[in-house]
Design goal:
Shape: globular
Strand content: 5-15%
Number of helices: 13
Pathway: Carbohydrate degradation; 2-deoxy-D-ribose 1-phosphate degradation; D-glyceraldehyde 3-phosphate and acetaldehyde from 2-deoxy-alpha-D-ribose 1-phosphate: step 2/2
Keywords: Lyase, Schiff base
Organism: Streptomyces violaceoruber
Catalytic activity: 2-deoxy-D-ribose 5-phosphate = D-glyceraldehyde 3-phosphate + acetaldehyde
Radius of gyration: 19 Å
Strand order of the largest sheet: 7-6-5-4-3-2-1-8
GO molecular function: deoxyribose-phosphate aldolase activity
CATH topology: TIM Barrel
Order of helices and strands: HHHEHEHEHEHHEHHEHEHEH
Number of strands: 8
Structural class: alpha/beta
Largest sheet: 8 strands, parallel
Oligomer: single chain
Length: about 325
């Protein structure tokens, strides 16, 4: 079982206890949440601060390919890009990780060996999560054995939405136990949880169960990461650390495509959770196309002109 602070030691003792705890959390003021997220998104970041933000964002990317048509060659090419995003400028930071399906984890691990770039692998019947627990745990074991440093799991949204909160909690605990030294990112699929109150409750379930990161989305549904749902999750990890002393990371994923988007999210991090989360160990972007825009904006700052569309690789 995960270690939690005494204040929460009884919250997961039974389904009824967990339900009481979750429904005792403050309700989310949706209007206020969205207004604050929008206001923070208007902050202007320029010159040296923008250059710093671009490099920080690059270093926080989980460069991702999660397609049925993925091949070893594509994964190796993505790994090469993660290690050396801009071959014309070796000062460009490496990305945080490359994220792949479990059957591609060994290929990614071999390509990234010694680079410092992590191998992340989705598991637990990603993206729908519709499988028996033993199948999900086997999925995790396969990825870890193949060299994954990080596991991105999906929660059972059907169980959550039908009020079986302890089942969701216990499944996360079981997956965490299979991770060994690999860090666990717990994906809520916020677009399917319907309400901000549900996102807050899912965040607390994940944190209580031992998640190392809480993550918005799979990137496979219509609504993925938004400033508002990410702000809500940042508030949750901030409050959890204040109560327990345990720091949890946050990963917005899906729909973050431009440098402007990324900078808005970094402002959210700084103004909500604080500077301690402005580090790839505690904040990630789940993205594929974002890196290309960051590289083009980075070149614009250094040369004064925008590069052509052939400046970056097509992933």
């Amino acid at each position: 079982m995960p270690t939690t602070a005494p204040a929460f030691s009884d919250a997961t003792a039974s389904d009824s206890a967990l339900r009481r705890f979750l429904f005792g959390l403050p309700g989310v003021d949706a209007v206020g949440l969205e207004a604050r997220a929008a206001a923070l998104g208007t902050r202007s970041i320029k010159t040296t601060a923008k250059a710093y933000a671009i490099d920080l964002a690059i270093s926080m990317i989980d460069l991702t390919t999660l397609e049925g048509a993925d091949t070893p060659g594509k994964v190796r090419a993505l790994a090469a890009k993660a290690v050396n995003p801009d071959p014309t400028d070796r000062t460009t930071p490496r990305t945080a990780a490359v994220c792949v399906y479990p059957d591609m984890a060994a290929t990614a691990a071999a390509a990234l060996a010694g680079s410092g770039v992590k191998v992340a692998s989705v598991a637990t019947a990603f993206p729908a999560g519709r499988a028996a627990l033993d199948v999900k745990l086997a999925d995790v074991r396969e990825a870890v054995a193949a060299g994954a440093d990080e596991i991105d799991m999906v929660i059972d949204r059907g169980a959550f939405l039908s009020g079986r909160f302890l089942k969701v909690y216990e499944e996360i605990v079981a997956v965490k136990a299979e991770c060994g030294s690999a860090r666990l990112k717990v994906i809520f699929e916020t677009g399917e949880l319907s309400t901000y109150d549900n996102i807050r409750r899912a965040s607390w379930i994940g944190m209580l169960a031992g998640a190392d990161f809480i993550k918005t989305s799979t990137g496979k549904v219509g609504t993925n990461a938004t400033p508002a749902n990410t702000l809500l999750m940042l508030e949750a990890v901030r409050d959890f650390r204040a109560a327990t002393g345990v720091q949890i990371g946050v990963k917005p994923a899906g729909g973050i495509r431009t440098t402007k988007d990324a900078v808005k999210f970094l402002v959210l991090v700084n103004e909500t959770a604080g500077e301690d989360w402005l580090d790839p160990h505690w904040f990630r972007f789940g993205a594929s196309s974002l890196l290309n825009d960051l590289l083009m904006q980075r070149q614009k700052l250094s040369t004064g002109r925008y590069s052509g569309p052939d400046y970056v690789t097509v992933d």
